[in-house]
Amino acid sequence: MERRRGGCQARGGDAVRGVYSLILEVRGEVEVGALGGHHFDGMYVYVGSALGPGGLKRVDRHVSVKDGGVRRWHVDHILHEGSVVSALATVTGRQLECEVAGSLGERLSVAVEGFGCSDCSCRSHLFGPGDVEAAAVEAHGELWRQPQ
Description:
Blueprint: E1 2-4, E2 7-9, E3 18-31, E4 37-50, H1 57-64, H2 74-81, E5 83-91, H3 97-107, E6 126-127, H4 132-144
Antiparallel strand pairs: 1-2, 3-4, 3-5, 4-6
């Protein structure tokens, strides 16, 4: 696998798909679309899936929001105001976003109820503040230990 600007690609040009966590630093009041205004103060982790044709290029797309990109998802609203500190991805073709969110929910507080989960039954896909990097590494590590 090669990492290039513009996303992850497997040799041969196919998009690499998976689940990712963005480690974010956000401070201040942010209007989060239909979820309304919320106060943020610290480090947060957002979990998303990248199983579509662009795969993990979605991470680059989220990062571009800071530079005036289109706000399409809940996370884009806070990315416009905050910053991505780091990203963690697990390469998989399986829908594991909700498993990572569940694991993060056991370790951290829900930051905004209903955030990033309008297409599932999770409470949220945004967690923190707290030691979000360690929680994300642990949550993704649990996926690596699961039988395929």
